[in-house]
# Entry
Amino acid sequence: MKTLQVFEYQSIKVGNELTENQFEALANFAEKHQSKYFSITHKGIKFSHYVGALQVDDLTIEILPKADRDHKPNKKKWQSVLLEMLRACRLLKIESLTDAHLKLRPNLILELYFEIFVSEVEKLLSQGLIKSYRRNEANLKVLKGRLVVPKQLRKNQLHKEKFYTNHEEYDYNHLLNHIISKGLDILAQMVFEPNLDFRIQKLKSHFPKVDNIEITETNFQKIYFHRQTIRYQTALDIARMLILNYSPDIQGGKKSLIAILFDMNLLFEEYVFRQLKKCQSEDLMVKRQTQKPFWNRRYLRPDILLNWKGETIVLDTKWKVLKKINPNMEDLRQAFVYNRFFEAEKCVLVYPKVYDLEDLGVIPFEEVNEKSACQVCFLDVLINEKLGSNIGQNLLKKIIEI
# Structure
């Protein structure tokens, strides 16, 4: 396996980092996903604000975040930041893995997700997979369930010994196991590491035979976790990423592609929210996913809402590097609308701090009848070259008097 580490918004080219076959697979993937994760340039690709890892043929590409003024930033440092963010946001559950697994090295992100998925499936098999009741129609030699008369007359005129029935079965052939099986099939085609490949093949040989159905986003939306199925959740979360971001090579030229990618804007928002949530108290409530109708069945949903002693404050996180204290008009308009619709006295725009910029204090919007203001804060994402663990407390000191 070859590994290439790049940063968000970086470009790579055919002949330098990519072969023609790899570029073709990436171009097909971009077209399938409407250039959501990266765009195609002339004989190359340009990454966007999505970070994570993808594998095409025998090449793994890690896309790392970057909030750094250095022209040659430290890749290990930003790989560590990404892993810590994923872990803090519960998108990478690696508490059970040993320190040896966490030694920073290229290709680690994809390896971790593969390893965790295989470990979770091994655990499910050792505990026993869940069975479920399902309705089934079949032509049987015994009468079981309800006889389907039209099909009985049509199919069994010459086979009086058979019964075409609609009956209930209790087995492993249900959606959760369909998804796990599909995930194993994908990994069996993508994993090159011998030990992990052996474990995958062993799991496939012990896994019960289930229907091979097409899995889409709709299937995952149907899943409801309860006391018996909650132990499937981690494996299903990873299987979702594997299945929905897998592009098989239908022509057999070893150009299959798989991607596990995250929107860095949403990841930054989630991390800031979780850090603030740790600071919640009787005086401070931290909420998110709060929305209000805006226009024609469209909704406004700010990143984070704070309620400090009865005062509402909107936080809008932005994973973008500002070289000067000058938010663009789109960010300011959004802040103004949030204040108005959520009856907030101020909206705080939160950016990662890269350059030596001072925070911008509370400044009211001009010519507005109601009290409405905007504040700009630059957040130190790195403390001593590591992801800051007191980000929530540091941010609150900037925006409220605690």
